[in-house]
From TrEMBL:
Keywords: DNA-binding, Transcription, Transcription regulation. The keyword ATP-binding does not apply. This is IclR family transcriptional regulator. It comes from Metarhizobium album. GO terms for biological process: negative regulation of DNA-templated transcription. Residues 38-100 form the HTH iclR-type domain. It comes from the Bacteria. SUPFAM superfamilies: GAF domain-like (SSF55781), Winged helix' DNA-binding domain (SSF46785). The keyword Cell membrane does not apply. Residues 101-284 form the IclR-ED domain.
């Protein structure tokens, strides 16, 4: 049975993209420091980061708008990225797409990650049991990015994939990540998030306070309708023993599949058990 997306493509799923935009130069000219190799590398990566899973191609103006870089800078860097194979340029359309070198780089990172390799069978088992979707992700800026995702055979499921970006402040994955940080690191991130969404800062503070409390008391956090009103999710923090970046595991779905009471009583404990089992497998204990 074909999976049906529950998201309207017109909805602002990538609304937090605005938090990633760089401030534009008031003169529209390339900054004097652009000759610095590190600065050029940073801007080149900004261009690659401008692509989302929904973008087959992007034009120059879209890259300028999303990165805040000057037109001359975008033109110069895209030319370099095309030459290196990180972007592909369609001359007929005048648009860019992700190149083979970028795909290869991302695939190498994912395929060599032992956490993803060990987690996927456990994630798929929980997805099949709940009829929902189970994902693993980590922070990138002020968003969480999917590193792995497993779906059930349910005809209605979350249509998010590897590379999808979701808000750090309003999702179970993001709240689980934040709740698992030490207070100093968490405080710095919280300030950035509040600056990016002043109107929702009080609601975010309340959600985070509850998430920290739930993590201590139950080992998991919940997000009921805080991202989209029809989505409930549970999240847990996972700190790899090898010092790799902190990740979060989540199980989420529409409220009909994952009612709040079911999340608290059953799904949450199962996700905590999944994280414990993953840790055992990664350390060689069964």
């Amino acid at each position: 049975m074909k999976l049906i997306s529950i998201f309207d493509p017109g909805w602002p799923l990538w609304e937090s993209d605005r938090l990633r935009k760089r401030s534009k130069s008031t003169e529209g000219a390339e900054p004097a420091s652009s000759g610095n190799s590190s600065a050029s590398l940073t801007r080149g990566l900004d261009i690659l980061r401008a692509f989302t899973p929904d973008d087959a191609t992007l034009g120059n103006q879209e890259l300028i708008d999303r990165t805040g870089l000057a037109a001359a800078t975008v033109s110069r860097l895209t030319s370099t990225l095309v030459g290196l194979g990180y972007l592909h340029y369609d001359a007929a359309l005048g648009r860019y797409s992700i190149g083979a070198a970028t795909v290869s780089l991302g695939y190498s990172a994912l395929s060599s990650n032992p956490i993803i390799h060990m987690a996927r069978p456990l994630m798929q088992e929980l997805a099949d049991w709940t009829g929902a979707a189970v994902a693993l992700g980590t922070r990138d800026g002020l968003e969480m990015v999917y590193l792995a995702n497993c779906r059930s055979m349910s005809p209605v499921t979350l249509q998010l994939n590897v590379g999808s970006r979701i808000p750090l402040a309003r999702t179970a994955m993001g709240l689980a990540y934040l709740a698992g940080l030490d207070p100093e690191k968490r405080g710095a991130l919280v300030e950035q998030l509040k600056q990016g969404d002043a109107d929702g800062s009080e609601r975010f503070a309340a959600n985070l306070e509850r998430a920290i409390r739930d993590k201590v008391e139950h080992g998991y956090v919940t997000a009921f309708g805080s991202w989209h009103s029809y989505i409930n999710a549970v999240g847990v923090t996972f700190h790899p023993a090898d010092g790799s970046p902190t990740v979060a595991l989540t199980c989420g779905g529409i409220v009909d599949i994952l009612p709040a009471d079911h999340c608290r009583k059953t799904v949450g404990p199962k996700l905590v058990a999944l994280a414990a089992q993953l840790r055992q497998r990664l350390t060689g204990r069964r």
